[in-house]
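Sorry to interrupt, but I need a hand with the structure work. Could you add the entry underneath, on a fresh line?
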Amino acid sequence: MKKILVIDESQLFRDFLQTKLEQYGFDVTVAVNGLDGTVKLRNQVPDLVIMDFYLSRASALDVLQKKNADPNAKDVPVIMASNRIERENVVQIAPFNVKKFFTKPIKLDQLLAAVSEILGVEVKVDNTPCIVEAHFNDQILFIEVAQGLNSDKIGLLKYKIQELLDLYKVPNPKVLVMMSSIEIGDADTGKLSALLNTILDCTSVKPKQLKILTANEKVRVFVDQRKEYSGIEVADTLERAMDGLLGRKAGSYVDKESRTVQKEFLSASAPKSGKKESINLRFGGENAPAPDSTPVPDITGSARVAVIDDDIVIQELIKTVFEDTSVTVTTYDDGADFVADPEGLNYDLLFLDLMMPKKDGFAVLAELREKTGVPPVIVLSALSQREAVVKALKLGVKSYLIKPLKPEHVIRKATEVLRSNF
C-alpha cells in the first residue's frame, strides 16, 4: 500500500484529500502545518507528499530542505498546491523533486492522474459526463447539475457545500437544485440518491426547504416514490421553484436597482469571510464559468429572440433573464418545430441547443446555412469538446455558452451579438 503525506493548513482540504485518496487504497497521513509535516515526513517516510506552499511553524521551503537533508526521504516526490505562487518561488522549489504544481482550487481528476503517474498505481475516476456548480446568494444555495450524474463529483459536492457554508456563514440555508439537459438511466438511481442525501446531510435542511427545478420526469418519479424525500418539491418552471423558496413571484422586482429575482439570486454573492474556495467541481478539459468581474450590460431597444431547446429549465431561465427588457422571447421544444415555423428567419438572435431528440442543433445550423438573411446564433450546449465547438463555428455560430448557464453570461453574450448586428 502506497503511503501519502498531506500537509495543509485547511482542515477541510485535508479531510477532502484523505477521504478521496483512501477510497483509492492509499495509506494517507495528514499534517496540520509545516513543523508537523517535517516530523511526520522524517518518522514515516511516505511514497509521496502533497503539500501547500504557504505553511506556518515551518515554511514549505524549510520542509523541502529538511526532506532533502534526510537520506531516507530525499527522493520522495512532491506535489505542490497553492492558491497563488510567485515565479521566484517556483524556481526555489524546483530542485526539491517537486513533480507537479497545482493552483487551488485543484481539479480532482488532474490531481489523481498525477498521483497515478508518479506512484505507478492505476486510479480510476468516474468519467460520466457531468458538470456541477454550487454557489450561495443571499440565503439560497444554488446547485446546478448538467449532462449526467458522476459519483466522484457527488463526493466532491459534500466538501464544496461544507466550504460554502463556512465561507458565507449561512445558518439556515434554502436549496435550489437546477438539473438541466440531464440524462438519467435506470442505473443512476443510486447516484441520484447519493446526490440528494449529500445535500440534505451537509446542509441539514428539511425536505420542504429543498426544491428541484428540472424537466426530467425520471427525477420527479424517483423523488415522489421515496418516503425519505417526502416534502421535496420537483418543479418544472422557475416560478414554481422560486415561489416555494422565497414566498414571492420569481419574476417580480426586488427594487429599482435590481433585475428579476432570477438574476439577483443566480449571481454568486461575495464570501463573508476572507478565505478563498479550494474545492473545484470541474474536471480537466471542462470550461470553467466565465468570470463575473465586469458589470452585466443593459440591453436597450427591442429585439426578437428565439430559444430552441428541449429543456424547459433552460427555456424558463432565458425567458426570465430578459423579462425586464424590451426583448421578446419565443421558445421551441425542438429544432424540427423551429425550422417548420415560417417566422424562423425573422428573429434577431437564436439561442440553439446542440442536442435535441428530433432535429439537433447541427441539423438546424446546416439548414439555416442554405438560406439567406440568417439571424446570429448562440449555441447552448452541455458539450464542451473542442470538436463540437469548431463544428458549430464552421456552421455560422456567433458564440456559444456551456451549460449550466448563468443569467449574467446569457445577457452579456446576447448584448455583444445584438449590438454588433443592430
